[in-house]
Design a protein that fits this description.
With 462 residues, this protein is α+β, with helices and mostly antiparallel strands. The chain has 3 domains: 161 residues, no CATH class; 138 residues, L,D-transpeptidase catalytic domain-like (Beta Barrel); 59 residues. The chain has 16 helices and 19 strands. The strands form 5 sheets. The chain has an 8-stranded mixed beta barrel with strand order 5-6-7-16-14-13-8-17. A hairpin with an 8-residue loop joins strand 13 and strand 14. Helix 3 packs across helix 6, helix 3 packs across helix 7 and helix 9 packs antiparallel against helix 10.
């Protein structure tokens, strides 16, 4: 009996000693510090990779170079959770292989023992832990839309990458926060993104072309603002469609005409702040030099027939007499501005919707309604023509009681320019999605690629 008690006591002591040994993370601090003092070969050399490595180095310094994913010589539950999230990154249209999932799995398999479970050699722990942290940061960056820039596929695609303190997020994960929760909440919550996730699962392994396009369009949603606004205007350029969303539901939808490939519509987000009824059309410099002036030179009556006024830039008020201008004197014509008077034949139609931006792009009516029935509606010089401007004006001014449908129709036909400010700015988002989830949440429509952005995006991902 005494011998059995002594044996039991010795076993308990060994377990306690062994347990202390396993949880002694301080022994990893010095080699871990040495590792993060440089830049390992597996750190990507692109700007995002350098940014993430800087975050990682600061993170380990803050925690005194103690490992995060290993406890002593054993994997922590958070390591298992992270590996699971890396494997499930495919649900976001990402590639698990890019996070070295297979390599991590090999390290775990190599550390398996028959009697004691997974036990890592002390020499392996620093590199394993640091690489796991980098994989966490890479996945976080991908979910935030940091890894690729929209301008890499289209020079006039302006986005504002979501700002996020990933160091603070890592610190929360290392203490209590769920790994899954900390990563999943970085992904978009737009209904389109969720719908594309479902479509990707259905297309995977069955339709490579659709699968690739869905992955690209999911990344484009990661580039979009996370908060589109409780009500907003959403324009999908390749679909030639506009929706007004209020809450989660489209309350208005219409066809649009966008820029030709050689005069492409820029992609960006801004806020509509005012509406102009019976607008003048100030002819842009490019159209003026390439189209208007050559026509005037050949036909002196062109200006009058098209209700175009000549306006000086030297401080003179009012339009100039075209007969007083020497059209052969380039130094004189260079100082002139041209504008088309308000009216039914005005190129902007009867109303325009302004969201100030440096592209000078806006939404407007058009006298050429027949063009909305064309299949290819990339026909403008860059601005966006809307099929039902009256409905859009009614929505934008809906909280101003004096602007009834009758008053709007009257202002549109007065042929006197009138500006009306919106009570609250209305967000406008111009994007490029060639895979679009229909209102049923299941059907996906695939559009043409008028600007060749799909091709450029595919090359980037390759």
């Amino acid at each position: 009996m005494v011998i059995r008690c002594r044996a039991l006591t010795l076993f308990v002591v060994l377990v306690v000693i062994g347990g202390c040994s396993r949880s002694d993370n301080s022994r990893h601090a010095a080699p871990l510090r040495q590792l993060v003092s440089g830049t390992p070969a597996w750190v990507k050399t692109d700007p995002v990779g350098a940014r993430l490595w800087k975050i990682e180095k600061a993170f380990y310094a803050e925690r005194q170079y103690l490992p995060v994913w290993v406890d002593g010589d054993r994997p922590t539950p958070r390591m298992k959770d992270l590996l699971q999230q890396l494997r499930m990154s495919d649900a976001h249209g990402l590639q698990p292989a890019s996070y070295r999932v297979d390599w991590f799995t090999q390290q775990i398999n190599a550390a398996q023992t028959r009697m004691r479970g997974t036990r890592f050699d002390a020499a392996v722990v620093p590199d394993l832990d640091v690489q796991l942290t980098y994989a966490y940061l890479r996945l976080a960056a991908d979910l935030l839309g940091w890894t690729h820039s929209a301008r890499d596929v289209y020079r006039d695609w302006l986005t504002a990458p979501r700002d996020e303190d990933l160091g603070a997020r890592l610190a929360r994960v290392s203490s209590a926060t769920s790994v899954r929760e900390s990563l999943e909440e970085l992904a978009p919550t737009h209904s389109q993104y969720k719908g594309l996730q479902m479509a990707l699962a259905a297309a995977r392994g069955h339709d490579p072309d659709h699968e690739a396009r869905i992955r690209m369009n999911m990344e484009r949603w990661r580039w979009a603002p996370r908060d589109l606004g409780s009500r907003h205007v959403l324009i999908n350029v390749p679909a030639y469609q506009m929706q007004v969303i209020d809450g989660d539901q489209p309350v208005l939808a219409m066809r649009v005409i966008v820029g030709q490939p050689e005069h492409s519509t820029p992609l960006f987000s801004d806020h509509m702040t005012y509406v102009v009824f019976s607008p003048y059309w100030n002819i842009p410099e490019s159209i003026l030099r390439e189209e208007t002036l050559p026509k005037v030179a050949l036909d002196p009556g062109y200006l009058e027939r098209n209700d175009i006024e000549v306006v000086g830039t030297s401080g003179k008020k009012g339009p100039l007499d075209p007969k007083s201008i020497d059209w052969d004197d380039e130094s004189e014509t260079r100082r002139l501005r041209f504008r088309q008077r308000p009216g039914p034949e005005n190129a902007l139609g009867l109303v325009k919707f302004i969201f100030p931006n440096h592209f000078s792009v806006y939404l407007h009516d058009t006298p050429s309604d027949a063009l909305f029935f064309e299949e290819n509606r990339a026909l403008s010089h860059g601005c966006i023509r809307v099929e039902n401007p009256v409905a859009l004006a009614q929505y934008g001014l809906g909280d101003q009681r004096q602007w009834t449908a009758e008053r709007i129709a009257e202002a549109m036909h007065e042929e006197t320019e009138k500006t009306v400010r919106l009570t609250s700015p209305l967000p406008v988002h111009i994007g490029y999605w060639t895979a679009w989830v229909e209102p049923d949440g299941k059907t996906v429509s695939y559009t043409a690629d008028p600007y060749g952005i799909d091709k450029a995006h595919a090359r980037l991902l390759e």
